[in-house]
Write a structure and sequence with these properties.
The chain is α/β, with parallel strands linked by helices. The protein contains 13 helices and 18 strands. It has one domain: FAD/NAD(P)-binding domain, CATH 3.50.50.60. Helix 1 packs parallel to helix 5. It binds flavin-adenine dinucleotide (FAD).
C-alpha cells in the first residue's frame, strides 16, 4: 500500500509526483483533462522555486532557459522609474530568477516522470480521510492522497469543508509575443487601476501581462480592449500589444483563497492552489506549489507525519498569500491622491530595501524546511 494518489496534473501535482518518487513511494497522478493541453503563458520562477526544482532533479533544464543580463523595475505610465530593481544584486544574493513558458515547465516535469504515472481523462469526485478516493473510473484507496486539484479543489472538501475563493477585484490578461524589436528589459508599469508587465523569454519572445479593475465576470474585450487601455503608455508596451495575436490572449478574473485552518486531514495533504491559491502579484503561486512538493517528499522520506507538512507549509504560504494580496491592492489603486502617494513612496524606496523585504520569500532552501 505504498501508493500515493495525486489528484490533479498541474505544476503542483507533477512536482509532487517527482517528490514522491524520490521518497521511494509509488505516485499515481489523476488528471481530469483528457490530455494535457498546452495552455498558459509565461511564468516567473524565483530563486526559491529554482532551488525546489533542483531538489526535484530538473533544475538544470529550467536554468538553461535563463535570460541572464535583463534588468528592470516598476515605472509609471509615462515610463518614469518608480522603483529600480537591482537584478544583479538579486542574482548575487539569491540566484537567478527565470521566466519560462508554462507549457515548457509542464513538459520538463512530465518528461521526468516514468510512463504510466500520469493518467489523464480521470477526474476525482470525492476523497475522505481514510485515503479512499472516488474517481470517474472507479474507487481506489491510497496510503496518501494529495489534493493538487487547483483553486476549486474537490479533495479540499475533506480537509476544510466548502471554501469559497475570494474575488480580488481585478482581471488579468496574459500572452506571449515575438516583438519586432528585441526586448532585453523586464518590468511592470503601474497606472491607475491597471498595470502592464513584460519579461523576455530565452528564445526572444516576450511574456506580457496586464491587469485592470473590473467586476467579476465582466465581458472580455480581448486584445482590442488591451490596445485601447494601454495605447498611450510608454514603449515598448503599445508595440508589444501591436505584435500580439488575439487568439493567444488569456484572461482570468483573479481569485485567491482565505487562509485554511489546516492543509492536512487523516491521509490527505493539499498542495499548490488547492491549499493556498494566491493573487499573482508576487509571482509566487507556482513557486510555492514547487516548495510544497519538496516538503511533501521530505516529510514522506522522514516519517510520513502529515502534521510536519502542515506546520512547515501553512504559515509560510499564508504569509506570502497575504503579502501578494496587499501588493495587488496597492498596484490596483485607482483614486488619484492614493496613486500619487503610492508612487511617491515607491520613488523613495531604495532597491536594497525592496530586496531585503523579499528575502524571507526568496531565501527558502530545501534544507531549511526540516
Ligand atoms: C494571471 C496569473 C499569473 C500567474 N503568474 C505566476 C507566476 O509568474 N509565477 C508563479 O509562480 N505563479 C504564477 N501564477 C500562479 C500559478 O499559475 C498557480 O499557482 C499554479 O499554476 C498552481 O498550480 P497547481 O498545480 O496547484 O494548480 P492548477 O494549475 O490549477 O492545476 C490543477 C490541475 O488539476 C486538474 N484538476 C482539477 N480538478 C480536478 C479533479 N477533480 N480531478 C482531477 N484533476 C483535476 C486541473 O485540470 C489542473 O490540471 C499565476 C496565476 C495567474 C492567474
Amino acid at each position: 500500500m505504498d501508493e500515493v494518489l495525486i489528484a490533479g496534473g498541474g505544476i503542483g501535482g507533477l512536482a509532487s509526483a517527482l517528490a514522491v518518487l524520490r521518497a521511494g513511494k509509488r505516485p499515481v497522478v489523476l488528471e481530469r483533462a483528457p490530455e494535457q493541453a498546452v495552455v498558459g503563458s509565461g511564468l516567473s520562477l524565483w530563486p526559491n522555486a529554482i532551488r525546489a526544482l533542483d531538489a526535484l532533479g530538473v533544475g538544470a533544464e529550467v536554468r538553461a532557459r535563463a535570460v541572464s543580463d535583463a534588468n528592470g523595475g516598476i515605472r509609471d505610465a509615462a515610463g518614469r522609474l518608480l522603483l529600480a530593481a537591482d537584478a544583479a544584486a538579486l542574482r548575487e544574493r539569491f540566484g537567478e530568477p527565470i521566466v519560462v513558458h508554462r507549457a515548457e515547465l509542464m513538459a520538463i516535469l512530465r518528461d521526468a516522470l516514468p510512463d504510466g504515472v500520469l493518467r489523464t481523462g480521470i477526474g476525482v469526485t470525492a476523497a475522505d480521510e481514510s485515503g479512499r478516493v472516488v474517481t470517474t473510473a472507479g474507487e481506489r484507496t491510497a496510503e496518501l492522497v494529495v489534493g493538487a486539484d487547483g483553486i476549486r479543489s474537490v479533495v479540499r472538501r475533506a480537509v476544510a469543508g466548502e471554501v469559497e475563493p475570494r474575488y480580488a477585484g481585478y482581471a488579468a490578461w496574459r500572452t506571449v509575443v515575438m516583438p519586432s524589436e528585441p526586448v532585453t528589459e523586464f518590468g511592470e508599469t503601474w497606472g491607475r487601476g491597471q498595470r502592464f508587465g513584460f519579461a523576455p523569454l530565452a528564445d526572444g519572445r516576450v511574456y506580457c501581462f496586464a491587469t485592470a479593475n473590473a467586476p467579476a465576470d465582466a465581458p472580455d474585450g480581448g486584445l482590442a480592449e488591451l490596445r485601447q487601455r494601454f495605447a498611450d503608455w510608454h514603449a515598448p508596451i503599445p508595440a508589444l500589444l501591436a505584435a500580439a495575436d488575439p487568439a493567444q490572449i488569456l484572461r482570468h478574473d483573479i481569485y485567491d483563497l482565505p487562509a485554511l485552518p489546516r492543509f492536512t486531514a487523516g491521509r490527505i495533504a493539499l498542495v499548490g492552489d488547492a491549499a493556498h491559491a494566491m493573487t499573482p502579484d508576487l509571482g509566487q503561486g507556482a513557486c510555492q506549489a514547487l516548495e510544497d512538493a519538496v516538503a511533501l517528499g521530505a516529510m514522506l522520506a522522514i516519517d510520513g507525519d502529515l502534521r510536519r507538512y502542515d506546520a512547515l507549509r501553512r504559515p509560510r504560504t499564508q504569509r506570502i498569500a497575504t503579502r501578494a494580496r496587499r501588493l495587488g491592492r496597492a498596484g490596483q489603486l485607482s483614486a488619484r491622491p492614493l496613486v500619487a502617494l503610492r508612487d511617491a513612496v515607491m520613488r523613495r524606496t531604495p532597491a536594497s530595501a525592496q530586496l531585503g523585504a523579499m528575502a524571507p520569500v526568496l531565501n527558502w532552501a530545501p534544507a531549511s524546511m526540516m
